[in-house]
Automatic annotation (TrEMBL):
SUPFAM superfamilies per UniProt: HAD-like
Protein name: 5'(3')-deoxyribonucleotidase
One BP term from GO: pyrimidine deoxyribonucleotide catabolic process
Source organism, top-level taxon: Bacteria
Matches recorded under InterPro entries: 5'(3')-deoxyribonucleotidase, HAD-like_sf, HAD_sf
Gene Ontology molecular function: any one: 5'-nucleotidase activity
Family: Belongs to the 5'(3')-deoxyribonucleotidase family.
Location of the active site: 7 (nucleophile), 9 (proton donor)
């Protein structure tokens, strides 16, 4: 039985799609996800990065993110074979704490509160595997890092990459 740490934003919850949706609602301009590939997170929109980052502080942003395809089924299956923890560096955006907990309760009700970790730095995480979309979280990790593909990390080659939750299942189930 392995211990697996799973990031929320960009891995379970589709942050990029949420940015696109909120931008479209706010400014009436649709941005094609493909145009964001290879760009730093929250860039590639007609407005600057700070405008885009302001969404992260607005009520509802974290609560209404779309679920990434197949994450629910695969995480449930992982729990049957492994010790699974959801680990989110939520402290940067304190209003997100309650929203993230509510989001998990709605979309992943099978995950116990005892297996949810909200933290600042993920450098304290000890597990066999960490699935994350950010280099800054995988670099200090002592176990096997799995880089979940997101537009901002498509050029990263330092970690084993997983593009979908079905690929995660193929590795860990």
């Amino acid at each position: 039985m392995a211990r697996i740490a799973i990031d929320m934003d960009g891995v379970m919850a589709d942050t990029t799609q949420q940015m696109i949706d909120w931008y479209t609602q706010r400014y009436g301009v649709e941005v094609d996800k493909a145009t964001l590939y290879g760009l730093p997170e929250a860039t590639g929109f007609p407005h600057d990065r700070e405008v885009m980052r302001s969404f992260l502080f607005e009520p509802g942003f974290f609560r209404t993110k779309p679920v990434i395809k197949d994450s629910q089924e695969v995480i449930r299956a992982l729990q049957d074979k492994h010790e699974v923890f959801i680990v989110s560096a939520a402290m940067e955006f304190p209003p997100s704490l309650g929203e993230k907990l509510e989001w998990l309760g709605e979309h992943f009700p099978f995950i116990s509160w005892q297996n949810i970790v909200f933290c600042g730095s993920k450098s304290i995480v000890q597990a066999d595997y960490m699935i994350d979309d950010h280099v800054k979280n995988l670099q200090p990790f002592k176990g096997q890092g799995l880089m979940f593909t997101a537009p901002h990390n498509v050029h990263v080659t330092d970690f084993r990459r997983v593009d979908t939750w079905q690929e995660v299942a193929g590795i860990l189930l």
